[in-house]
Amino acid sequence: MDTKFLSWFLQGGSVAIPKRFLAYMAPLGLSFEELGEIVYLFSLEGKVRHGDAYGKSAAKQLVDKRLIRYDVDAGEVDFSPLFDKMFDNTMAADEAAAAGDARKEDRVEALVAVVKRYEKERGIILSSKVRGDLSEVLLRYGWNSDLTFAIYDYFYTHQRQHYNFLSFAQMAHNAGVEDLASLKAFVGSLDYELTKVREVLRLLGKRNSPTEPQRALYAKWSKTWHFSHEVILMAIDDTTGADNPSMNYLDAILAEWHAKGIHTPQEVRAHRAAEKSKRSQSKTTRRPIKRYISGEGERDFSSREE
Questions:
Q1: From CA 103, how far away is CA 84, in angstroms rounded?
Q2: Distance CA 257, CA 306 (A)
Q3: DSSP-assigned beta bridge partners for residue 291
Q4: Are strands 76-78 and 297-300 parallel, antiparallel or unpaired?
Q5: b/e per residue, 76-110, with b = 16+ CB within 10 A?
Q6: Are the C-beta atoms of residues 77 and 47 closer than 8 Å to each other?
Q7: Of the candidates 17, 43, 41, which has an alpha carbon nearest to the alpha carbon of residue 25?
């Protein structure tokens, strides 16, 4: 390892992430991208500079999540909503601890009911790892045995191999699933999203069924970066010059737009018009090549002084 580079790298200082904050990721439903945005704003000490495009974008995303308040004109960030949620979760945890044994007994009864029903109806013996995950979900979200059974059954049936059951349960919780009706709406949205991903793949010239990583990319574009399906389809137009356009190529385009704060169809059109104008100006300001035809053939005098 180049120790000189490492020494230089660390001289700029560092940003620490409190362990207590990491512990609140799951209860608050924070993604790692949101964690990074919050930590970045922490490092700015709550003051976003005028030219800080990423800071402005991060603040906008977190305002949408109702995790901060942000004064656009002054660039000031107020973390009170985040701390209030953390305090509420702490109070809830204390109350749950006070309830203690009664809640633990309810969880054990619900776990036994889910395991027995699943093994009987599906003819599958659940492993200790799965039982532990089910127990964690029952404790964390307070779902009843019927809802927990249905959520795990959907997860297992659809073979979601690129994330585990705990992650899927957190997705369901973040989507507001609290009964069988809201679960039906949640999985319906997942299936509808699958249709959108298929359309994107088709326009990219791909005929395969969407993979989980491809669906995860689309979820990032639509839910984390807040691009509409229309804007995602507009980005496909910029892949026409690629030899082999792909979801990753499209991801790079959308990442650039996201960094520049381009999220609506109007902003995309304005961006393209500006780029076209810039290219046009570049062509008109290019120095013309002066040529002279003599008996010796064509000669180039463009490098000579006037």
A1: 25
A2: 44
A3: 300
A4: unpaired
A5: ebebeebeebbeeeeeeeeeeeeeeeebeebbeeb
A6: yes
A7: 17
Say how far apart CA 172 and CA 136 lie, in whole Å. 14
**Predicted local distance difference test score (pLDDT) of residue 253:** 94
Describe the chain by its helix, strand, coil percentages, rounded to 5: 65, 5, 30
**First CA to last CA distance, the chain:** 55
Give the tokens for residue 260.
Answer: 């520049």
Global pTM reads 0.41
At position 147, the amino acid (one-letter code) is: L
Is residue 194 classed exposed, middle or buried when 0-12, 13-18 and 19+ CB atoms within 10 A define those classes?
A: middle
Tokens standing for residue 240: 């026409």
What is the identity of the amino acid at 184? K
Interstrand relation of 291-294 and 76-78 (parallel, antiparallel or unpaired): unpaired
Residues sharing a CB contact under 8 Å with residue 300, sequence separation 6 or more, in sequence order: 289, 290, 291
Backbone phi, psi, residue 291, to 5°: -125, 150
Half-sphere exposure of 230 (CA within 13 A, CB side): 7
What is the mean pLDDT, run by run of 10 residues, along the chain of 306 residues? 63 72 74 85 85 89 88 87 72 54 71 90 87 90 92 81 77 90 86 83 86 85 91 90 85 94 93 89 65 53 48
Q: Which amino acid is at 14?
A: S
With contact defined as beta carbons under 8 Å apart, do 145 and 114 qualify? Answer: yes
Q: Quick check: helix, strand or coil at residue 144?
A: coil
The structure tokens listed for 193 are 């999203």
pLDDT at position 301 is 46
Token digits of residue 258: 């996201």
Amino acid symbol at 170: Q
